[in-house]
Amino acid sequence: MENNTVDTSRDNKLILAILQEEDYDQTVEMLNEKNFFVTKLSSSGGFLKKKNVTIMIGVGEERLSEVTAILEKYAGKRKITTYTMTSSGAEVRGINTGVAIPVEKQVGGVTMFTLSMDSLKKF
């Protein structure tokens, strides 16, 4: 029987990353592209009333910064601009004569836990 130990050193890390569901597909696609394998766990959160996803990633310490950079870029906090219509008070026949005001808001965000592991094996 073949030994499928990926890395037997004590420098293995287990990353538990909680990200918004809308960031999951692109984040995992980028992790897979760099040969990181991800396991999705069902999870739920309640603070912002947004759906989230928890992923597990086993990685050697030498590649930890790569995973962190991908998580930050594709699931991290970012600002988006949306537009809100103001009412001018002079709406005539259902036509809004207000002005669209840009509103910047923060979206996304990932919480990352990094744990030490004794070994990492794939069978």
Descriptive keywords:
Alpha-Beta Plaits, disordered N terminus, alpha+beta, 8 strands, two-stranded antiparallel sheet, single chain
For the termini, the CA-CA separation is 10 Å
- Reading off the top of the CATH hierarchy, the class of the domain at 11-78 and 108-118 is best stated as Alpha Beta
Strand runs, count: 8
As for the CATH topology of the domain at 11-78 and 108-118, it is: Alpha-Beta Plaits
- Structural class based on helices, strands and sheet pairing: alpha+beta
Based on CA inertia axes, which overall geometry fits? Answer: elongated
> Helix and strand string, N-terminal first?
EEHEEHEEEE
Description:
The protein is α+β, with helices and mostly antiparallel strands and about 120 residues long. Helix content is about 20%, strand content about 40%. The protein has a domain at about 10-80 and about 110-120: Alpha-Beta Plaits (2-Layer Sandwich), CATH 3.30.70. The protein is built from 2 helices and 8 strands, in the order ββαββαββββ. The strands form 3 sheets. The protein has a 4-stranded antiparallel sheet. Strands 1-8 form a two-stranded antiparallel sheet. The chain has a two-stranded antiparallel sheet with strand order 5-6. α1 runs antiparallel to α2 (about 65-75). The N and C termini lie close together (about 10 Å).
